[in-house]
Design a protein that fits this description.
Among the domains are: 151 residues, FAD/NAD(P)-binding domain, CATH 3.50.50.60; 76 residues, no CATH class. It is 30% helix and 22% strand. Bound molecules: ubiquinone-1. It holds the Pfam family Pyr_redox_2.
């Protein structure tokens, strides 16, 4: 279990949320030569899977992974931990045990990118020279951007929690257990986020929890989202609206959390459509999805990123638009897909084939269609499995109506996906469900 005291974190470190855990660095390898064929920056879902694929192809010690964290979290489990369905201890493995043995792991952080000289500087003062660079840093959680939030998340037995950080996720289940009446308020920020479905999954789980505990009638459940819609894909939004209505969940769109006053249990929101209009809402529990951004160290390298700070890649090939020996995978990329582990999985064979082609000086043939998937958990035994591509049209794997709440999808999310992730994705064998979708498509045509 992670506790602030055991980590000895400063306030500003706590403000960085789970990135803090990733920052406890100590060199894992001493590089004899600060050079490699491929440098992978980040050992999250995308970085780890790609390091496995690339090091298996290129051989030992050709790939360096730069990653400061000692633990690798299976983040898709965090919503279930917030609902008390899993424990935090079940969500991680040691980084040393998930990174491929054929790659060198440097347990440091990338602090400066120089794509003109093909080098990256590290927090330990190393400079690494690469032939090819894969940027897989993921996102940074900016809890500190909301005044009062970090303090609210530090109050012992407080009323504020967040499933996005291992530091704060256990608080969510504590909040669910402690609340007896009043307002349960849930937020979605005004920034790109990873797993955009998660902030509402925890709403559904909480609402179900309150019903199970017989306290639902005393609690108002409100979801305040900065987005103009409940879900970006109409096919699934049309299925979700009746659920929120039937379960008496209030949804306010274009409402953005701007301050938390923990001493008074007040959350302050702004109306994004009417500048200056503010709402003060008293809460008995508050669930916050923090604003996010590309990590500062990456965002400051303007040669590599777009205005929003994300790596400026071609959305099909995942190759950098200017630096042809630079690729990106996962949440740090500017490709306009939903940021989920499933997207990184679907990107991984494309990035792999294209990087190998680029290494050989060949043209890039593989292209990513924007596939993303979001298992929208709607309670303690149901889930809608949303799957879609860049065009925001459904791209579904199974020959069933996936816009319906199903136990089978819940079981897949809760019990099968972790196995798929640890045993298939991280070792580099899982390329997303495209193959499965093609095989199952024979049943779909029969159905019609
Ligand atoms: C998926 O590929 C993936 O990444 C490993 C997830 O994250 C854990 C998912 O939640 C889902 C649903 C997929 C897609 C897989 C199938 C079988 C539809």
């Amino acid at each position: 279990m992670i506790s602030y005291s055991s980590l000895r974190l400063s306030k500003s470190q706590i403000a960085r949320g789970w990135c803090v855990v990733r920052n406890l660095s100590a060199s894992q390898v001493h590089l004899d030569k600060h050079e490699c064929k491929v440098l992978v920056v980040g050992g999250g879902a995308g970085g780890c899977a790609m390091a496995a694929k690339l090091s298996s192809k290129l051989g030992s010690n050709k790939v360096i992974v730069l990653e400061p964290a000692d633990k690798h979290y299976y983040q898709p489990m965090f919503t279930l931990i917030g609902g008390g369905m899993k424990r935090l201890e079940q969500s991680y493995k040691l980084m040393a045990d998930v990174l491929p043995k054929k790659a060198k792991w440097l347990r440091e952080k990338a602090v400066e990118f120089d794509p003109d000289s093909n080098t990256v500087k590290t927090s330990g003062g190393n400079t690494i020279k690469y032939d090819m660079l894969l940027i897989a840093t993921g996102l940074q959680l900016n809890y500190n951007k909301i005044p009062g939030l970090v303090d609210a998340l530090s109050v012992p037995n407080g009323k504020v929690g967040s499933i996005y950080s291992p530091l704060y996720v256990d608080r969510v289940y504590d909040c669910l257990r402690n609340i007896n009446d009043g307002n349960a308020i849930f937020t979605f920020p005004s920034s790109p986020v990873k797993c955009p479905g998660a902030p509402q999954k925890i709403v559904y789980i909480s609402e179900h929890y309150f019903r199970k505990m017989g306290k639902r009638n005393n609690i108002n459940v409100t979801y305040n989202t900065a987005l103009p819609v409940l879900f970006g894909v109409k096919h699934y939004a049309d299925a979700l609206w009746p659920i929120v209505k039937q379960r008496n969940i209030t949804v306010n769109t274009r409402r953005n959390l701007i301050e938390v006053k923990a001493a008074q249990d007040i959350a302050i929101f702004e109306n994004l459509d009417k500048p200056g209009e503010r709402f003060e809402e008293k809460y008995s529990m508050l669930h916050v999805c923090p604003p996010m951004s590309a990590p500062d160290e990456l965002a400051k390298c303007t040669k590599l990123v777009n205005e929003a700070g994300f790596v400026d890649v071609d959305k099909s090939t995942m190759q950098h638009l200017k630096y042809k020996n630079v690729f990106a995978i996962g949440d740090c990329s500017a490709s306009p897909n939903s940021k989920t582990a499933a997207s990184a999985a679907a990107q991984s064979p494309v990035v792999y084939r294209n990087m190998i082609a680029a290494l050989k000086g060949k043209s890039l043939k593989s292209s990513y269609d924007g596939y993303a998937s979001c298992p929208l958990v709607t309670g303690y035994n149901t889930c809608i499995l949303a799957e879609f591509d860049y065009s925001l049209t459904p791209l579904e794997t199974f020959p069933v109506a996936q816009n319906k709440e199903r136990y089978s999808m819940f079981f897949m999310k809760k019990d099968l996906m972790p196995i798929l992730y640890w045993k298939m994705m991280l070792p580099g064998y899982w390329n997303g469900p495209a193959l499965m979708r093609n095989m199952l498509s024979i049943f779909k045509s029969k159905q019609k």
